Amino acid sequence: MNYTELIASIQTYTQNSEATFVAELPTFVKQAEDRIYHMVQLPALRRSQEGVLTAANRFLSLPTDFISVFSLAVIDAAGDYYFLINKDVNFIREAFRATDTEAQPRYYALWDEDTAGLAPTPAPGVSPAPAYFFQPGSHGAGGANRPGGGNGPAPPFAFLVDGLTLF
After folding, report:
1. Which of 3, 5, 27, 70 could form a disulfide with 131, with the two C-beta atoms 3.0–4.6 Å apart?
2. What is the DSSP code (8-state) at residue 62?
C-alpha cells in the first residue's frame, strides 16, 4: 500500500471526504508514525556513529534524528571502547560538581532533547560513540528514509485513531 492508497483507504473506512478531514490526513500519518517509532524499538531503526568532544566540555550534542539511546561509549586513544552507565541528570550534577576535573567518563545523562552530559568531564583523547534509535522519514514525506525502503506505511489503524478523534 502506498501513500495515495493509504489516504483513500482511510477516507473509505471513515466514509469521510470532508475538506478539513482530508487536509489533516498528512498530519494524522505523521503523528501515528511518530507514536509507533517512539514505542517500538526496531533494530532497523538503530544507528551508530563516532563523534567529537570539545576539550573541557562535558556535553555531547545528540544527532538531529535521535529518538532514544541504545548505548553510549567513549573510545580512548588506543581504540578501546568503554560503555557508559545511564544516570539521572541530578546524579551527574551532585556527584560531579567539579566540572573542570577531566578523566575517563563513566556515566552519562540525557540533559535535554539535544544534549547528553558525560561525567566526569572527558579527558582529551576520547571520542564518543553513541548507538541510538533514529527517526526515519515520514511515509507522507515520500518514505525514502523509512526502514525497508518505504515499503508501506505503519498500520492503518494507527492513522485511524487520530482521524476518528477529529470527528
Report:
1. 70
2. P
Separation CA 143–CA 164 (nearest Å) = 24
Domain ranges in the chain are 3-43+138-166, 46-134
* Cα(153)–Cα(167) distance, integer angstroms: 23
Please state, as a whole number, how many other Cβ atoms lie within 10 Å of the Cβ of residue 39. 8
Q: Model confidence at 67, in pLDDT bands (50, 70, 90)?
A: confident
CA–centroid distance for 92 within its chain: 22
The residue count of the chain comes to 167
Nearest Cα to Cα of residue 99 among 114, 81, 117, 84: 117
CA distances from 66 to 31, 36, 47 (A): 17, 15, 9
Alpha-helix residue ranges (DSSP H) falling in the chain: 3-14, 19-39, 89-95, 156-166
Sheet with strand 85-86: strands edge to edge:
59-61, 115-119, 107-112, 85-86
The band of 143, judged by pLDDT with boundaries at 50, 70 and 90, is: very low
Hey, what's the cell of 167? 470527528
**Predicted confidence (pLDDT) per residue in 13-66, tens digit:** 888 888 888 888 888 888 887 787 777 777 888 888 888 888 788 999 998 888
